Amino acid sequence: xxxxxxxxxxxxxxxxxxxxxxxxxxxxxxxxxxxxxxxxxxxxxxxxxxxxxxxxxxxxxxxxxxxxxxxxxxxxxxxxxxxxxxxxxxxxxxxxxxxxxxxxxxxxxxxxxxxxxxxxxxxxxxxxxxxxxxxxxxxxxxxxxxxxxxxxxxxxxxxxxxxxxxxxxxxxxxxxxxxxxxxxxxxxxxxxxxxxxxxxxxxxxxxxxxxxxxxxxxxxxxxxxxxxxx
Length: 230
Fold this sequence. Notes:
This protein has 230 residues and is α/β, with parallel strands linked by helices. 43% of the residues lie in helices and 16% in strands.
């Protein structure tokens, strides 16, 4: 596999549930494969996924950035299609950055279709093999969505930041969320030499509350994991 791989969570018993009017049955997910852009997201998920779905095994595969992931995605999904058991799901997670969400989503759906995998969007039900989720606009927006977690790690940061006009809606922050986070942290005396994304991902990830985060794109990510494992 390309990139780093980590495994977390605990195995759980398989259970069955109906997923269509035709009477088909689909195993609940007992293992999730995450395909992500970079190591900071891998570190974050390794900390957070067990708090969303504690009884699930998972692997996180990081790439060398967004375009490395997108370039390899179709071939990688075709590889999964050759062996993927019914109790496994694939979650592709990318940053929106400055791309149009619809265009990026369409590209991800095309890759799933070309690989012969059933996507959540195409199936219209819980009977899916792969789902794509987009962090709007970057992982750091999710940190702004749980500012209490950030303040626990970096207590000199003002509590009022999350209530300021430019930060109230995490997915609508302008000027790059990691750049904005760097400015806020540096103003409080942290990371004077530049934001250390891996250190922040690990620190905030250990304190992050999936139920508290107000980022809509994170909520969609969280809820699809709950759906797959319900």
